[in-house]
Specification:
Layout: H1 7-17, E1 22-23, H2 39-54, H3 58-66, H4 76-87, E2 96-100, H5 101-113, E3 119-125, H6 129-137, E4 141-148, E5 151-152, H7 154-166, E6 170-176, H8 190-203, E7 206-210, E8 235-240, E9 251-255, E10 259-262, E11 265-268, H9 269-278, H10 286-298, H11 304-329, E12 341-342, E13 350-354, H12 361-371, E14 373-374, E15 376-377, E16 390-394, H13 400-422
Helix pairs in contact: 2-10, 5-6, 5-9, 11-13
The structure holds pyridoxal-5'-phosphate (PLP).
Length: about 425
């Protein structure tokens, strides 16, 4: 894939042209679980709480919410309690930044920490394209490390660290999605979590831990996040609320508790990141933060109970999609389907399917037009080569009925392709 290409724009366009097609392309959360009508109640709750806690009038609080505000955020105390309660992460309010989505967190983090001449950003390959594309477009040196069934390959990571050190470059950031990785669905093993933290200490790099899907765990209890076991402050934590709550909030929680030395002065990295953010988005909308703050207060700083039904709903979809794949492709009568394989993700929104032929943009259009189903080629997520004969199915925003019809249509497409290949 050429990183200059706008692959998400391409998929959106295909979805809008073939609007009747069933789309497994985007990992959007299911709007069935939205409760937008409660937003005003949460906002009111926040205002009332502030009146009580700050001893100010309602009008003063309203004025404050209508103004420009603190760049790091206005609900950091509430978020600190939430991170402790739901994620066992200890973060001081001043080490938290409330950003405009994880995408902004990635951008301001990289812009503050990395220099374009000597620093290298290593990312899981394949990975969420938000970081690779941001880095490339802005001229940062970004390189990939393969993902294994236990997360980022530590062997390969060590080789890259040595390679870059031998040519006088410095790996500054390693970006990982330890839980239910997008796009592969893989989970980083517990052993590898500790080893990665150790490597960060030995080789002096920072880890960007992107936790967009950790709440969607469908099996045993998930492993601890890297941040919750990060004794040496090596991890910058990015917790998007887009999947946990609503993408429209554009809210993410960033924990930056490192200090760095600049010209002999020790500075808090969170202050430097905040300075960068100040020149990009000034501050994250206060009214949205207040609404989320009210939600946290109302739910006693834990979202687990509120999200239980949603997580169970997603698990049902994953199970149903796996069942459909099993029933469609794993039958003895279908010789053509024996070469179609898929993984069994323990959480998240995605299933990865291996095919006996390559798929790219042309195949996406062909399949959408003739078979009315849309998928994402895995190659879209690789930095250079890889994933040519794989596709990603996102099941989060489809009903069970759509999943069934979609898999039937995908099977027709795959069968047709294989039969044509044999001719
Ligand atoms: C791994 C990962 N990180 C971050 C995001 C986007 O986060 P946000 O909406 O908070 O910018 C996504 C969205 O698909 C994602 O898959």
């Amino acid at each position: 894939m050429n990183l200059g290409e706008d692959v998400m724009g391409f998929l959106n366009e295909v979805q809008s042209i073939y609007s009747k097609a069933i789309s497994f392309a985007s990992g959007r959360p299911d709007a069935k679980y939205f409760n937008i009508e409660k937003f005003s109640e949460y906002l009111d709750f926040f205002i009332k709480t502030e009146v009580l806690e700050k001893g100010q009038t309602e009008n003063e609080i309203l004025g404050y919410l209508g103004q420009y505000n603190r760049t790091k955020g206005i609900i950091n105390k509430e978020v600190s309690k939430y991170l402790w309660k739901d994620e066992a992460i200890q973060a001081l309010p001043e080490d938290i930044l409330i950003t405009v989505g994880t995408q902004e967190g990635i951008a301001v983090g990289i812009m503050t920490i990395c220099n374009k001449e000597n620093d290298v950003i290593l990312v899981e390959d394949p990975a969420y394209i938000g970081i690779t594309h941001f880095s490339k477009i802005n001229g940062y040196h970004v390189d990939g490390v393969p993902v294994t069934s236990n997360g980022i390959s530590l062997e390969n990571l060590e080789e890259k660290l040595q390679h870059y050190s031998s040519i006088g470059k410095r790996v500054r950031v390693v970006y990982v999605i330890p839980d239910f990785q997008n796009p592969s669905g893989v989970v980083m093993s517990l052993e590898n979590r500790y080893k990665l933290l150790e490597l960060a200490e030995i080789h002096d790099f920072l880890i960007f831990e992107d936790n967009a899907y950790g709440d969607f765990s469908y099996e045993n209890s998930p492993y601890p996040t890297l941040k919750s076991i990060d004794k040496n402050n090596r991890v910058i934590y990015l917790k998007s609320l887009s999947k946990t709550l609503y993408p429209s909030l554009r809210l993410s929680l960033m924990v930056v508790n490192q200090s760095i030395s600049v010209e002999g002065n020790v500075l808090k990295l969170s202050d430097l990141v905040s300075k960068t953010k100040g020149y990009i988005t000034v501050n994250t909308p206060s009214i949205i933060q207040a609404m989320f703050g009210g939600m946290l207060h109302q739910h006693n700083f834990s979202l687990k109970k509120m999200n239980k039904e949603k997580v169970l709903g997603m698990k049902e979809k994953r199970n149903y999609l796996l069942k459909c794949l099993e029933e469609t492709f794993n039958t003895k009568n279908n010789s053509w389907s024996n070469e179609v394989k898929w993984n069994y993700p323990k959480g998240g929104f995605f299933i990865r399917v291996k095919l006996p032929f390559e798929v790219g943009k042309e195949e996406v259009v062909e399949c959408a037009e003739k078979f009315k189903v849309i998928f994402t080629p895995m190659s879209f997520f690789y930095l250079n080569e890889g994933g040519e004969n794989e596709l990603r199915l996102a099941f989060s925003n489809l009903s069970l009925e759509e999943i069934k019809i979609g898999i039937d249509r995908l099977a027709d497409y795959i069968k047709n392709k294989i039969e044509n290949l044999k001719k």
